[in-house]
Automatic annotation (TrEMBL):
Pfam families in the cross-refs: CBS, CorC_HlyC
Occurrences of domain CBS (ranges): 75-134, 138-195
SMART domains, A to Z: CBS (SM00116), CorC_HlyC (SM01091)
High-level lineage: Bacteria, Pseudomonadati, Pseudomonadota, Betaproteobacteria, Burkholderiales
Keywords for the protein's UniProt record, in alphabetical order: CBS domain, Repeat
Protein name, per record: CBS domain-containing protein
Highest taxon of the lineage: Bacteria
Length: 296
Protein backbone atom coordinates (compact mmCIF):
# COMPACT_ATOMS: atom_id res chain seq x y z
CA UNK A 1 0.00 0.00 0.00
CA UNK A 2 1.30 3.45 -0.92
CA UNK A 3 1.21 5.91 1.90
CA UNK A 4 -0.79 9.04 1.13
CA UNK A 5 1.42 12.13 1.33
CA UNK A 6 -1.51 14.52 1.19
CA UNK A 7 -0.92 15.47 -2.40
CA UNK A 8 2.55 16.89 -1.79
CA UNK A 9 5.06 16.79 -4.59
CA UNK A 10 8.81 16.11 -4.48
CA UNK A 11 9.62 19.75 -3.69
CA UNK A 12 7.24 19.68 -0.69
CA UNK A 13 8.95 16.51 0.54
CA UNK A 14 12.38 18.12 0.24
CA UNK A 15 11.09 21.20 2.04
CA UNK A 16 9.61 19.07 4.83
CA UNK A 17 12.76 17.00 5.18
CA UNK A 18 14.94 20.10 5.36
CA UNK A 19 12.95 21.79 8.10
CA UNK A 20 12.58 18.49 9.98
CA UNK A 21 16.38 18.24 10.09
CA UNK A 22 16.65 21.83 11.28
CA UNK A 23 14.17 21.02 14.04
CA UNK A 24 16.18 17.95 14.97
CA UNK A 25 19.32 20.08 15.22
CA UNK A 26 17.76 22.45 17.73
CA UNK A 27 16.24 19.56 19.70
CA UNK A 28 19.70 17.93 19.77
CA UNK A 29 18.41 14.67 18.31
CA UNK A 30 21.67 13.92 16.51
CA UNK A 31 22.86 10.38 17.10
CA UNK A 32 26.47 10.97 16.11
CA UNK A 33 26.83 14.18 18.08
CA UNK A 34 27.92 16.24 15.04
CA UNK A 35 24.70 18.21 14.64
CA UNK A 36 26.34 21.29 13.15
CA UNK A 37 27.79 19.32 10.24
CA UNK A 38 24.45 17.59 9.69
CA UNK A 39 22.67 20.93 9.58
CA UNK A 40 25.18 22.36 7.12
CA UNK A 41 24.76 19.28 4.94
CA UNK A 42 20.97 19.69 5.08
CA UNK A 43 21.34 23.34 4.07
CA UNK A 44 23.59 22.44 1.14
CA UNK A 45 21.11 19.81 -0.06
CA UNK A 46 18.23 22.26 0.28
CA UNK A 47 20.15 24.83 -1.75
CA UNK A 48 20.95 22.26 -4.45
CA UNK A 49 17.26 21.31 -4.68
CA UNK A 50 16.10 24.92 -4.81
CA UNK A 51 14.38 24.87 -1.42
CA UNK A 52 16.46 27.88 -0.34
CA UNK A 53 18.19 30.47 -2.51
CA UNK A 54 21.89 31.32 -2.62
CA UNK A 55 21.47 34.51 -0.59
CA UNK A 56 19.42 32.72 2.07
CA UNK A 57 21.98 29.94 2.22
CA UNK A 58 24.78 32.47 2.66
CA UNK A 59 22.99 34.18 5.55
CA UNK A 60 22.15 30.89 7.27
CA UNK A 61 25.77 29.85 6.92
CA UNK A 62 26.75 33.19 8.44
CA UNK A 63 24.47 32.58 11.42
CA UNK A 64 26.26 29.31 12.08
CA UNK A 65 29.64 30.92 11.51
CA UNK A 66 29.31 33.68 14.12
CA UNK A 67 29.11 31.07 16.87
CA UNK A 68 32.63 30.01 15.84
CA UNK A 69 34.04 33.56 15.75
CA UNK A 70 35.04 35.75 18.67
CA UNK A 71 35.54 39.48 19.18
CA UNK A 72 39.24 39.43 18.27
CA UNK A 73 38.41 37.92 14.85
CA UNK A 74 36.60 41.02 13.57
CA UNK A 75 37.52 43.91 15.88
CA UNK A 76 39.07 47.14 14.65
CA UNK A 77 42.54 47.26 16.25
CA UNK A 78 43.24 49.87 18.90
CA UNK A 79 45.59 51.80 16.59
CA UNK A 80 42.66 52.60 14.26
CA UNK A 81 40.04 53.60 16.85
CA UNK A 82 38.83 57.17 16.50
CA UNK A 83 38.51 58.39 20.07
CA UNK A 84 37.83 61.80 21.59
CA UNK A 85 40.13 63.27 24.21
CA UNK A 86 38.22 66.08 25.88
CA UNK A 87 41.48 67.50 27.23
CA UNK A 88 42.42 68.49 23.71
CA UNK A 89 41.13 71.75 22.19
CA UNK A 90 37.49 71.45 21.17
CA UNK A 91 38.25 72.50 17.59
CA UNK A 92 40.72 69.64 17.21
CA UNK A 93 38.55 66.74 18.33
CA UNK A 94 35.48 68.20 16.64
CA UNK A 95 37.36 68.30 13.34
CA UNK A 96 38.65 64.74 13.73
CA UNK A 97 35.18 63.47 14.65
CA UNK A 98 33.62 65.18 11.65
CA UNK A 99 36.22 63.82 9.23
CA UNK A 100 35.83 60.25 10.53
CA UNK A 101 32.13 60.00 9.60
CA UNK A 102 31.39 57.83 12.65
CA UNK A 103 28.28 58.24 14.81
CA UNK A 104 29.74 57.08 18.16
CA UNK A 105 33.07 57.81 19.77
CA UNK A 106 34.84 56.42 22.85
CA UNK A 107 35.94 59.26 25.11
CA UNK A 108 39.32 58.95 26.81
CA UNK A 109 41.06 60.91 29.51
CA UNK A 110 44.65 61.05 28.32
CA UNK A 111 44.85 57.59 26.71
CA UNK A 112 42.99 54.27 26.42
CA UNK A 113 43.97 53.25 29.94
CA UNK A 114 41.20 55.60 31.08
CA UNK A 115 38.04 55.35 28.99
CA UNK A 116 35.44 57.59 30.60
CA UNK A 117 32.41 57.19 28.36
CA UNK A 118 30.85 57.34 24.94
CA UNK A 119 29.63 60.32 22.90
CA UNK A 120 27.10 60.27 20.08
CA UNK A 121 27.35 62.45 17.00
CA UNK A 122 24.30 64.42 18.15
CA UNK A 123 26.18 65.31 21.33
CA UNK A 124 28.90 66.80 19.16
CA UNK A 125 26.27 68.74 17.24
CA UNK A 126 24.95 70.25 20.48
CA UNK A 127 28.52 71.10 21.42
CA UNK A 128 29.02 72.83 18.10
CA UNK A 129 25.82 74.86 18.36
CA UNK A 130 26.10 75.75 22.04
CA UNK A 131 29.50 76.94 23.33
CA UNK A 132 28.30 76.35 26.91
CA UNK A 133 27.40 72.70 26.24
CA UNK A 134 29.58 70.43 28.40
CA UNK A 135 30.14 67.01 26.75
CA UNK A 136 31.47 65.47 29.98
CA UNK A 137 28.03 65.85 31.51
CA UNK A 138 26.40 63.84 28.70
CA UNK A 139 28.70 60.83 28.46
CA UNK A 140 27.05 57.44 27.97
CA UNK A 141 28.35 54.20 29.49
CA UNK A 142 30.72 52.07 27.41
CA UNK A 143 30.26 48.34 26.90
CA UNK A 144 33.39 46.20 27.28
CA UNK A 145 33.81 42.65 25.96
CA UNK A 146 36.72 40.22 26.11
CA UNK A 147 38.75 39.21 23.06
CA UNK A 148 37.46 35.63 23.36
CA UNK A 149 33.76 36.45 23.68
CA UNK A 150 31.69 34.72 20.96
CA UNK A 151 30.04 36.94 18.37
CA UNK A 152 26.61 35.36 18.85
CA UNK A 153 26.72 36.29 22.54
CA UNK A 154 27.89 39.82 21.71
CA UNK A 155 25.02 40.22 19.24
CA UNK A 156 22.56 39.02 21.88
CA UNK A 157 23.98 41.50 24.40
CA UNK A 158 23.84 44.35 21.89
CA UNK A 159 20.16 43.64 21.35
CA UNK A 160 19.31 43.19 25.03
CA UNK A 161 21.25 46.22 26.24
CA UNK A 162 20.35 48.41 23.24
CA UNK A 163 24.03 49.00 22.55
CA UNK A 164 25.71 49.51 19.18
CA UNK A 165 29.39 49.64 20.09
CA UNK A 166 31.76 47.78 22.40
CA UNK A 167 35.43 48.09 23.30
CA UNK A 168 37.39 44.84 23.28
CA UNK A 169 39.83 44.25 26.15
CA UNK A 170 42.64 41.75 26.43
CA UNK A 171 43.46 39.47 29.37
CA UNK A 172 45.13 42.37 31.20
CA UNK A 173 42.10 44.65 30.84
CA UNK A 174 43.78 46.86 28.24
CA UNK A 175 41.76 48.08 25.27
CA UNK A 176 42.74 45.95 22.26
CA UNK A 177 40.09 47.00 19.75
CA UNK A 178 36.54 48.02 18.97
CA UNK A 179 33.57 46.45 17.25
CA UNK A 180 30.04 47.54 16.42
CA UNK A 181 26.74 45.80 15.91
CA UNK A 182 27.19 46.47 12.19
CA UNK A 183 30.48 44.55 12.21
CA UNK A 184 28.72 41.51 13.70
CA UNK A 185 25.71 41.68 11.36
CA UNK A 186 28.02 41.93 8.35
CA UNK A 187 29.29 38.44 9.21
CA UNK A 188 25.75 37.25 8.40
CA UNK A 189 24.53 39.47 5.56
CA UNK A 190 27.81 40.67 4.04
CA UNK A 191 29.21 44.18 3.75
CA UNK A 192 26.86 47.04 4.61
CA UNK A 193 28.06 50.21 2.90
CA UNK A 194 26.89 53.67 3.90
CA UNK A 195 27.46 57.14 2.49
CA UNK A 196 30.80 57.39 4.26
CA UNK A 197 32.21 54.16 2.79
CA UNK A 198 34.50 54.73 -0.18
CA UNK A 199 34.51 51.58 -2.24
CA UNK A 200 37.25 52.81 -4.56
CA UNK A 201 39.58 53.99 -1.82
CA UNK A 202 42.83 52.05 -2.14
CA UNK A 203 43.82 53.13 1.36
CA UNK A 204 41.02 50.96 2.74
CA UNK A 205 41.66 47.92 0.58
CA UNK A 206 44.09 46.48 3.14
CA UNK A 207 43.34 47.03 6.82
CA UNK A 208 45.45 45.62 9.68
CA UNK A 209 43.47 43.50 12.15
CA UNK A 210 46.13 42.24 14.50
CA UNK A 211 49.48 40.54 14.51
CA UNK A 212 50.08 38.99 11.07
CA UNK A 213 46.43 39.41 10.09
CA UNK A 214 44.67 41.82 7.72
CA UNK A 215 41.25 42.38 6.14
CA UNK A 216 41.66 42.63 2.37
CA UNK A 217 39.04 43.61 -0.18
CA UNK A 218 38.81 41.03 -2.94
CA UNK A 219 39.14 43.78 -5.59
CA UNK A 220 42.65 44.60 -4.36
CA UNK A 221 45.00 44.44 -7.33
CA UNK A 222 47.86 41.96 -7.10
CA UNK A 223 50.23 44.82 -7.81
CA UNK A 224 48.91 46.77 -4.81
CA UNK A 225 48.99 43.68 -2.57
CA UNK A 226 52.56 42.83 -3.59
CA UNK A 227 53.71 46.40 -3.03
CA UNK A 228 52.09 46.53 0.43
CA UNK A 229 53.50 43.19 1.63
CA UNK A 230 56.68 43.05 -0.48
CA UNK A 231 55.51 39.79 -2.01
CA UNK A 232 55.50 38.52 -5.58
CA UNK A 233 52.17 36.77 -6.14
CA UNK A 234 51.64 36.42 -9.88
CA UNK A 235 49.04 34.76 -12.07
CA UNK A 236 48.60 35.32 -15.82
CA UNK A 237 44.85 34.79 -15.49
CA UNK A 238 44.14 36.99 -12.44
CA UNK A 239 44.51 40.67 -11.62
CA UNK A 240 43.07 40.71 -8.08
CA UNK A 241 43.44 38.82 -4.81
CA UNK A 242 39.81 37.67 -5.13
CA UNK A 243 40.69 36.23 -8.52
CA UNK A 244 43.59 34.28 -7.01
CA UNK A 245 41.25 32.74 -4.41
CA UNK A 246 38.63 31.79 -7.03
CA UNK A 247 41.32 30.38 -9.33
CA UNK A 248 42.79 28.18 -6.58
CA UNK A 249 39.36 26.89 -5.55
CA UNK A 250 38.29 26.35 -9.20
CA UNK A 251 34.74 27.39 -8.26
CA UNK A 252 32.85 30.37 -6.85
CA UNK A 253 34.26 31.08 -3.36
CA UNK A 254 31.94 30.83 -0.35
CA UNK A 255 32.20 32.25 3.13
CA UNK A 256 34.67 30.21 5.17
CA UNK A 257 36.66 28.90 2.18
CA UNK A 258 40.42 29.32 2.47
CA UNK A 259 43.42 28.93 0.19
CA UNK A 260 47.16 29.49 0.63
CA UNK A 261 49.28 31.56 -1.74
CA UNK A 262 52.45 33.60 -1.51
CA UNK A 263 53.02 32.82 2.16
CA UNK A 264 49.47 33.83 3.19
CA UNK A 265 46.28 32.02 4.06
CA UNK A 266 43.27 33.78 2.53
CA UNK A 267 39.90 33.10 4.19
CA UNK A 268 36.65 34.31 2.62
CA UNK A 269 34.75 36.56 5.04
CA UNK A 270 32.08 37.82 2.64
CA UNK A 271 30.83 36.58 -0.72
CA UNK A 272 27.64 36.24 -2.74
CA UNK A 273 26.63 34.01 -5.62
CA UNK A 274 28.57 36.16 -8.11
CA UNK A 275 31.79 37.22 -6.40
CA UNK A 276 33.96 37.18 -3.31
CA UNK A 277 34.00 40.56 -1.53
CA UNK A 278 36.15 40.45 1.59
CA UNK A 279 39.05 38.26 2.70
CA UNK A 280 41.12 37.76 5.79
CA UNK A 281 44.82 37.48 4.97
CA UNK A 282 46.97 35.72 7.55
CA UNK A 283 50.72 35.58 7.13
CA UNK A 284 51.91 32.00 7.52
CA UNK A 285 55.02 31.22 9.60
CA UNK A 286 58.14 30.74 7.57
CA UNK A 287 58.98 27.05 7.06
CA UNK A 288 61.72 25.78 9.33
CA UNK A 289 65.03 25.29 7.59
CA UNK A 290 66.51 21.81 7.67
CA UNK A 291 69.88 21.71 9.44
CA UNK A 292 72.83 21.53 7.08
CA UNK A 293 74.53 18.11 6.99
CA UNK A 294 77.76 17.79 8.89
CA UNK A 295 80.80 17.95 6.69
CA UNK A 296 83.80 16.02 7.77
Amino acid sequence: MTQDNGGRGPEDSADSSFFHRIGAFFRDESEDGDAAKQLQSAMQNARAKGVIGEDSFSMMEGVLKISELCASDIMIPRSRIKAINLDEPREQWMREARESGHSRFPVIDGDFSNVIGLLHAKDLLYSLLDPDYKPREHLRPVKFVTETMALNQILKDFKTEKQHLALVVDEFGEVAGLLTIEDVIEQIVGDIDDEFDTEDSEAKNIVPEGKNRWRVKAVTLLEQFNEYFHTSIRDPHCETIGGIVADRLERMPRRGDSVEAGGFRFTVLSANDRQVKLLQAERLPAPALSPAPDRK
